[in-house]
Amino acid sequence: MTIRLIVSSLLLTGLLTGCGGSTWVHPTKPSTEFTNEYNRCQNLVIRDPKLQQGSQLLILNATERCLQREGWRIVESE
After folding, report:
1. 34-75: per-residue pLDDT in tens?
2. pTM, rounded to two decimals
3. Residue 15: which domain range?
4. Which of 3, 8, 4, 38 is nearest to 23 (CA)?
5. Is the dihedral of CA 61, 16, 74, 76 positive or negative?
6. CA–CA distance, 24 with 35 (Å, rounded to integer)
7. Could you give the CA distance from residue 1 to residue 3 in angstroms, rounded to a whole number?
8. Residue 55 · residue 8 · CB < 8 Å
9. Hey, CA dihedral for 65, 71, 72, 76, is it positive or negative?
10. According to the lineage, what is the superkingdom (predicted)?
């Protein structure tokens, strides 16, 4: 289940950043650090007993909230 969740999350992240013309940015960290931060946040979310039986959307939303707490923001591309 965990591998499937990681793969689907990476696909969702690709869709969110690729198709929408937006990207995650951090004021002090390089963009190459995003994947590490995303994986760390997702691992924290997956361990939350309240979300273990949740839908992919709930997990994705919680992961994005974690990223935002870490200083990452979604910026629309021109």
Report:
1. 999 999 999 999 888 887 777 888 899 999 999 999 999 999
2. 0.68
3. 2-76
4. 38
5. negative
6. 10
7. 6
8. no
9. positive
10. Bacteria
Phi/psi of residue 48, nearest 5 degrees: -70, 115
Angle (nearest 5°) at CA 58 between 57 and 64: 85
Residue 62 · residue 45 · CB < 8 Å: yes
Structure tokens at 52: 């273990």
Tell me how many domains the chain contains.
1
56 near 8, Cβ under 8 Å? yes
Q: Residue 71 has what DSSP assignment?
A: T
Q: Which two tokens stand for residue 18?
A: 């690729």
How many other CB atoms sit within 10 Å of the CB of residue 28?
A: 6
**Secondary structure tally for the chain: helices H, strands E:** 3, 2
